[in-house]
Design a protein that fits this description.
- By secondary structure, the chain is α+β, with helices and mostly antiparallel strands.
- The protein has one domain: Protein Transport Mog1p, Chain A (3-Layer(aba) Sandwich).
- The chain contains two helices and five strands.
- β4 and β5 form a beta hairpin.
- α1 crosses α2.
- It starts with a helix and ends in a 23-residue tail after the last strand.
C-alpha cells in the first residue's frame, strides 16, 4: 500500500503540470499505482483505444501527454510481481468528482470509485507540490 510520502515522491519526481484540480486528483491516483509498484506502459489518447489492454508492449513510458484530453485521463500499467497482466485505469470528470474505473486484462469485473476532488486537492496550492494536495494517505 502506498503512503502519503511515497505518493508525494512520485509526484515530485514526475514534475507534472496541472491545469486544474481534476488534473491533480487524476495524477495523485496515478502516483498511487506507481508507488505501489506498477509500471506505466501507456497514457493519454492511445491508452483510450479499444485494444489498449491487449497491447503487447512492455516498454516503460513517461507521463508526457497524460492530460492532453480535457476532463479524461487514461493510464495503462502492469505489475512485475503480479503476473504482469495489464491494468487499465480511466478517469472521467463529473462536476467536482473524478470517476475512476479500473479493469485488469482478463477480468470481466470493473472496479469503480468516485473521488471528491476537494478532499485531496488544495484550492490555492501555489508552486510547491506538497501544498497542492491533502489527505493523500487516505487515497
Amino acid at each position: 500500500m502506498a503512503t502519503e510520502q511515497s505518493l508525494m515522491a512520485v509526484i515530485r519526481a514526475a514534475r507534472p503540470s496541472f491545469r486544474n484540480p481534476h488534473d491533480k486528483a487524476a495524477f495523485a491516483v496515478h502516483a498511487a499505482f506507481v508507488a505501489a509498484g506498477y509500471v506505466l506502459h501507456d497514457t493519454g489518447l492511445s491508452a483510450f483505444s479499444d485494444n489498449a489492454l491487449s497491447s503487447s508492449s512492455t516498454d516503460e513510458v513517461g507521463v508526457e501527454n497524460w492530460n492532453a484530453i480535457e476532463e479524461h485521463y487514461a493510464f495503462l500499467y502492469s505489475h512485475p510481481e503480479k503476473e504482469s497482466k495489464k491494468v487499465l485505469m480511466k478517469c472521467l470528470v463529473m462536476n467536482n468528482s473524478l470517476m475512476v474505473d479500473v479493469l485488469k486484462d482478463g477480468d470481466s469485473e470493473l472496479l469503480h470509485m468516485e473521488i471528491d476532488v476537494g478532499e485531496y486537492v488544495e484550492d490555492n496550492g501555489g508552486t510547491n507540490y506538497a501544498s497542492q494536495f491533502k489527505n493523500l494517505g487516505k487515497l
